[in-house]
Records
---
Amino acid sequence: MNLVSNIPVLVIIIPLFSAILIPVFGRISRSFGWYISLFATFFSFIISISLLNTVLTTGKISYRLGGWEPPWGIEYLVDYLNGYVLVVVGLIAFIVTVFAKKSVEKEIDADKITPFYSVYMLFITGLMGIIITGDIFNLYVFIEIASLSSYALVAMGRKRAALMASYNYLILGTIAATFILLGIGYLYMVTGTLNMADLSRRLPALYNSKVVLTAFAFFTVGISLKLALFPLHIWMPNAYTFSPSVVSAIMASTATKYGAYILIRIMFSVFTLDFDIRVIPFNEILVFLSSVAIIAGSVIALAQTNLRRMLAYSSVGQIGYIVLGAAIANQLAMTGGLIHILNHALMKGTLFLVAGSILYMTGIEEISDLNGMGRKMPLTMAAFTIGALSMIGFPLTVGFVSKWYLALGALDAGMWPLVLVIIISSLLTAVYFGRIIERIYFRDSIGAGEDSNQIIGQSGQSEAPMSMVLPTLILAGLCIVFGIAAFFPVSIAAKAANMLLGGG
Amino acid sequence: MIEFILAKYNYWIYIVLMMIGFYAIIVKENLIKKIIGINIFQTAVFLFYISIAKVKGGTAPIIWEKAGPYDNPLPHVLILTGIVVSVSTTAVALALIIKIYKAYGSIEEDKILEMKEETVPLSIKGSKKNSEHLTSDSMLYTDE
């Protein structure tokens, strides 16, 4: 066994071992935590790129953990879909880790920095594991690793409300995971297997079984809770608002994505499109729910006064787009939904990093205090503007690409009201980001923003440190790069969509 | 009807247990009682897994010369993992409750929600100072 043949498992091993190494080296010096995290996320990112590259050139990679044959042993399977999601998560994790150094020093107590990075790496381990595994029980275990570490991460926020946010997240997260566990149990009951590929071979004969329907119901509710699909989103705004900035950035851009990934995986890989449409009208229900999520998320975001809470509600709407793509389930819409996994991660990552930079420099969290920020932090605010334009779906940004494909897919399926939903939501998004952009560029900081002035000092720029500005600008830049050079991610997403819809 | 219930009584117990747990999670205001609810909820799932492992007339899955039909050991193994997860969830939750009690001075959810949200301002220089408030003195937080 050489190193190259073991590459799939390294994606998990590296962050897992760094989570163990950090407390050990943390005894020598606190600064090791960040360096080890940086190396680990960097290598995970490089490995996930090489995995995707291998998948694109030679097809699926199947890795047998411990050398056991797939239906019995645990199998790690990398195909177009999870190769692509792995790269997205790897990229965001690496960039957010670069950003983390200064932000964590400020927001986390000095003696908790080492445990913070340790738990943070466990969270990355969980994310990577969820995405790469081909075994459904292994999936559950990784969901719990990611969830348990995210409860701890959320609780590290500065305000005491972070504790209650974390507690509520824990209760709902545990219910969700237990439902998923039950779903797995019911599937095991009728099929006797836990391997996803094996399940998808055995299930079609059992599609009318009540046990399979029950399993699917438990999966749907459990995953929707994890995903924060509209009526089940209650845990999310508080968790994102009160957690440390780094945590809200990484969670907003990756944690909801793993929910979307599991939903797509269960809907299209474990079950098939045939089941989703023929046996129960699942896709119709999802189309309805995601449309409601898109509109409701945008409307509630309008009413928010706290910047991060507004971004969280906007996430509720954006998750709707990803689910909508999966629910329409034709080639174009599916491509749109999948591409939105990358695009939303880039835009929300940018916006939450900006919120983190503002908090770092000025302590501002309320939108009404943002007056005149465009002059104080020009680079950060430029990144914010790009992210906001992208959320609205301005041409030449990534947001446009995914909305374009979703709208085309909706028209293709003859569901023209959905185009209306997308347009209305874009307009609402324009309103709630527009009012912030107006504040940061066209209003004087004298007046409502007086408090912030006292903190910053009377005049002049006070840009965040380079290690925070640079990752923010890189993410914002990628929003434009992938908006113009859209063919590259789209080609991968199209292949993944084709695979999921049964085209090979 | 009675026979139908009795024949699969462990599944009925699983459903009843699960609903008791779920009820506690939703209705109880005390944070620790909610965690007990979560525990009952998860235990119900363990019972479900153990039930599906049973083979008619099966014995413990141990290999020896007189081995007859034996129960499926895989769900047992899976649920060992499940128990570990459940214990860790409880540990994290209890740790959180301790911190909540220090910060709010109460573990009744309705009382906590009533309290005005006192925010600890982000101090620009000494973030250490905040932490001392959070960990040592609970009285600084409670405004009643």
Note: Confidence is low (pLDDT under 50) at residues 447-459 of chain A.
---
Amino acid sequence: MSENGATAPGEDPSDQFIGGDNDEGPRVEFYGGRGMSAFPIAFFIVWAIIQTALWRIGDTGGLIVGILVGLILGMFFVRGNWKTYANTIFEGMTQPVAVTAIVAWIWAGMFAQLLQDGGFVGGLVWLADTAGVGATLFPAITFVLAAVFTTGIGTGYGASVAFVGLFFPAGILLGANPVLLFGAILSGAIFGDNLAPVSDTTIVSAVTQDADIGGVVASRFKYIIIAAAVAFVGYIVAGSSMDGLEISGEAQTIFLESSEAIGLVHVIPMLAVIGAAVAGRHIVEAISWGIVIAIAFNLIFGLASLGDIVMFNAPSDAPFAGPLESLPVLTVVDSADAVGVTGSLMSGVSGFFELSILVLLIIGAAQIMIRGGAFEVLLNWSLENLATNVRNAELTMVATAALINSIITINTAAEVAIGPYISKIGERFNLNGYRRANILDGQTAAMGYIFPWSGGVLAGYGAMQNLPGEYEWLDQAMLVTPIDVVPFVFQGWLLVAVFVIAALTGFGREYVTDRETEEVARV
Amino acid sequence: MSVFDKYLAGWRLRTSRPSFEVGSEVDIFIAESNGTSGRAYVGDTELIIEGAGPETIEKQVRVRVTEFDETTASGRGEFVEVVGESSYAE
């Protein structure tokens, strides 16, 4: 030790140096320790695995019961006042990120349904048939288009919904493997969610690490494009080895014959959505423009009637039904079962009602885990025991970000929660804001679209439920059970792999002394 | 840095033990302090910063490098001033 109390380099002064202490006491206390606050989420994950993987029941309603039972059982482990537990559920459910996801699903659901009912799928099939794109190439091309679309609009959830509604049926008809096709759509969503400057996860990753969005996007391009190049080849190889479904030859011929190029006019509303989003419009505004243009095109080109878009089916005894029956949006029906509102707008949103409730409840349970301290226990333990040098620190950042995002359904919420910890571990080793933001968002984007309870998978699966009613040749058995898609989300797995390799080799690593992020430089 | 350069930045394998020139000034986050000196890690390189007390922990400070040994990837520096906060500070 030197005279002034400092320690010479080379000595081991660990016991004299004391780091910062940011621990806040948990707000909800549990019998069995802070780890027990993960009970509701853990119970739900076990339930989801049993229901969807072991018993192959993709029913969202069943998952709602699973999370409800988990939340109720978790309450019995609370020490002290249960009111705090209940309030914490509300605190989680009312987070803007959860609502943002739901809004994106619903708007994208309406938009995709309008395009679907306006013959866009037929247009795609016509184009693929004319261009000679067969079952082998279709998943790889779907991946690229989904990636471009998501990078434009910034919402991977919205893109999953739109592409499952549009590209999934077209691909199946052309003989592509449905599981691979769903995986390719999710992979494209990951690409865009990760890269798009307007994506909420991109923004959260930049803001929590004090970095500018432009710099974050530019610096993460290298990881994303490496993963995407391998994924693209992967989809071609898998496309040539995995068989499609047997669609009855007659149904296929009929659909192919009725497929017309005119449906492709709906590329324009898609471009309008991308253009509006890139121009900085809110996603609600951007997709709304797409909806308006799609409705206009459907009516102008005779692709769908007003009644196809929205139709009120009123009972014959309704007082104002008879006199107004001549309206194009009103039908008087005799059977009580037929009463209701139908049409593209209705069927577009209907797949997401149950899902929205499920997601709110999961986010509530995740908040219990955060406020109860299980989250902090895990992160502090990893900070103290795993992050022993810069390589291990980066691996720890990758692993914890991946784990938390695997557990919390809405990846933006997971990212908001874990952002400060990534910052804490990274700053200890003076990794700059770009590197930290990229490690954080890589895992956030990837893990949000892989597991059966991930928001992106749930969104795509929700959209898939509508398809059997839309096409005569498509039945329930042709849909993908969410657990089956897990290994085929190539972009997700490869992105995590790229970051593991980057941590091990130092690829892309930047220290604060190499380059400051621009926000910081301005300060 | 041009937009194009930003896309090309970081396409390399960066060492876990970066070195610093004596006399240079760097802005780095302090990890720990023993009361009168602070310690910072830049990757696995260790710098002891004289004059960086407990109030500088997890803050970004300007450091003038006074000694550096590349073989052990360790060195010493003098605290100049606090230049920034941690991004997770409230």
Note: Residues 213-241 of chain A form the longest helix (29 residues).
---
Amino acid sequence: MSSASKSNLIIRIIENKFTPYLVTIIFSIFMISPIILMLFNSFKSAAEAFAWPPTIFPINPTLETYVRVFNSAVPLTMRNSVILSIITTLIVLAIALPTAYALSKYPFRGSKLILLFYLASRIVPPVSLLVPFYIMLSILKLIDTHLGLILVYTYITLPIIIWIIKGFFDEFPKDLIDSALVDGCTRLGAFFRIVLPTSAVGVAASGIITFLWSWNEFLFPMIFTTSNHVAPLTTGVFEFVGDEVIEWNSLSAVGIFASLPAIIFFIFAQKYIIAGLTKGALKL
Amino acid sequence: MKDSTFGFLVALPGTLYIAALVAFPLGLLFWLSFVRFDFYNPIVFVGLLNYVRVIEDRVFWIALQNTIVYATGVTLVTTCLGILMAAAVSRISRFSTFFRTLLILPWAVPLVVSGLVWRWMLDPGVGIYNYLLISSGLVGNVVNIFGDPTLAMITCVIADSWTRIPFTFILVLAGIQSIPVDLYEAARVDGANMLHSFRNITLPLSQKSILTATLFNSMFSFRTIDVIWSMTRGGPGKSTYVLGIDLVDYLIMYTNLGVTAALGVIMLILVALYTTVMIYYLLRR
């Protein structure tokens, strides 16, 4: 085959209307198989999880791993993850909402600089701040406490969440606020009565993003926690990772739990999360 | 009250909070990198000694090299696959929401878990992917991927990319979908085939999202240790040992936190440099 007809063939294949479906299906298998395999694996007995050749579907599905997981430290770390993520989200929203409102609708001298500083703080690698935070939390006696981790989590999420929420507020017409002011509303009153309710979707999306980022954080809890009473699920997954043996089936069950909140949010609130994330990202 | 005064007062608490949690630790980091600090002995100013100790360590240079290979690998794989996925999905009319949801789900998996899952799937003793490689005849025998320096690095890159592709995919898809359809029509009338229009319309017009995604991917993969930590912890030998893990090891092993701080400053500068080079290189093309 000559090279001309060969490249013609390639273009014909690319232009075929079934090709994108085929490509998408192949990619989907690549992307989804680890999650599906992890889910199946969590229903295997210990013997089957260690069998060679490995099975894809559990031959004798059992709930023994889930019993084992629930009798370990995992539920405790899961509780910690919930506490840490929810409190972080509430604090971040409480601070970010008024700040973003002011920066979006009532700019002042230096407000651009402040926004730039938030953005620049994202370039600082968190791992670099491990030492200063370690010293600060040690002095404040906050090592191995929920509060200490929450402080770190807010540092990681707050600056970029302000950017995302500001993006949502920017779309809100200033005229509406001004006409409310004419009607006797205060500037803060306009914020609570008009801006917040209309931007509810954006606020919810930002809350979900904060929750998920906090939920996924691993580096700081790994260094700053020693007890299971504080440690989140991202460190709890190592419960079944021993020096000699890794209990893959139990580990898979924990992995599913660790991924569950985000999976649920992605299935039910995908549109809003994506809107929030792309808004924050494209502002760069 | 003037509007600008109002804005200033409302933005003040949040800004102070962030300053306390970012600017202050940052200042502390720089100061620490020039002193000997260990909680017990008096603090001594040591000049650049901490930096010298970091740079004189052979492991630092290995880690630096690994970090660059790793970050570049993750960025390349993520960006290329993300663009391909976005291009494919943008041409799909049926089930596109369904496929989009499937393709972004890996994003839900925490990076540590991603490392562990891929470690399991490729495990020489129980791994399904390892078994598939053998039964498909691609390899003759069980491969111990985590015993081979190159394969271990490739695996870490794949596992990390796997969770980062969705973000790139979503950004680029949004970019592609904002391109007016008329442009493609016009190009087709002029005799351009799909490959031409992909190169001359799709890529240049979704450049902003591609650049943004690339920037985030390179910045994050340069500094994140989650996947490597759960997968190889730097091994075998030091073949996947990256700067972030080096820093954590310093923190655990050395009582003098000044040295660790110096490595922190070096990492900060390297990330800034690497990201700048990345942007410059991408913008020039």
Note: Chain A touches chain B through 97 residues (CB under 8 Å).
---
Amino acid sequence: MLIKKITYTNRRLHIHIGLFLVLFIWLFSVSGLLLNHSDWKFASFWEERKQNIKVTPINIPPGLDSIQIIKNMLLQLKISGEVNNVKLTADSIDFSISYPGHVNNIHADFKKSIYIQNEFSYNIWGKLRNLHTFNGANRNNPSLQPNWLLTRVWRFSMDAIAIGLIFLSFSSWMMWYKIRKDYSWGYLTLIAGFAIAIYFVFLLRW
Amino acid sequence: MKKYYPSVRTIHLYVGLFISPIVLIFSISALVLNHTDYINRTNPIKKLPDIKTSIDKIPYDTTDLQTAKGIIKKLRIKGEIDYVSQNDSQISFPVILPGLTTKIKINKQTNEVLITRIEEGSLRATNFLHKMPGPHNVKIRGNSLFMQNWRMIADMVVYLLLFLSASGVFLWYFLKAERKLGWIVIILGAISFTGLLLFLLR
């Protein structure tokens, strides 16, 4: 009775989690293909980027640390996004602020009281590529967590999609196991899939 | 359309079973990529002992990649050459297999070779596979047989995943008992998806 209930629930969850994730799966599938096929001419984004350089006066109160300076500047500039690559010197601060499809490299000169924005905007293909990799991870300092709320939300969504896909894989095995006698080729296909995965993850380096 | 239901169901089942272990690689690695800090703390990389050796007749008169390929052939090291860095005095390049990075540095004057290896473990192996072949170093990417194969597998998995999700929607549509809840779930998924993208892309 319990097994029957688990099997029934598993099947329903497989269907409904799959349906919930369908648009996310399409997004990550298409963007994954774009990342692996930079040579696809129709999907070029870097050549089509829009660049805008702005120089504007800015007022930075003295005695602030780098985080306070950036917060102050973002408030004055009315921009938001994931802040990266912060470099603070006595006379200036450099950082970039980004969200998918958009990067703004900012240089603020404290002595001249100006800031220079070097802004890049990408087309839809660039945005899709960015969405695939936009997790706020810092290569140089992995201990740094995302500093923008939406990056955290998006990263959480990526985690949820990954966990959803793991569940869909496990639940598919359970569903097939119940009807394995009618679908005996399932043994072969599952073993073939596992053989490929084990070869690449575990065996290749030995 | 309903006449296709049994065959679509059979194909959905077999394709799903076949790609499910590889989908696990992509899913687990997505979690690893999002939580590198946690992985670094719980699963530290292991540096293997350095190897010092020498090599003769390095073919410098060809491309950097061919030179590096010639060198790893002589040293009997297998893997994907990530990039090649060369100046007047030395040539160096990493050779990567999922979970193992080998760095080779050769003194051009003395032909002395320093080989350093880092054992990165299976989780980082999934991480590497997830990012490969990727958008970087496109001109030299796929210089090893395993990477050529992985490139094909990664593409195939994506196309099959697209097929699985489309055929899944098709199969659901004919399940009358699940139709109402299914619509609600699809709409909720679409709202989450468009809501997130609207905020993120502005």
Note: Chain B touches chain A through 67 residues (CB under 8 Å).
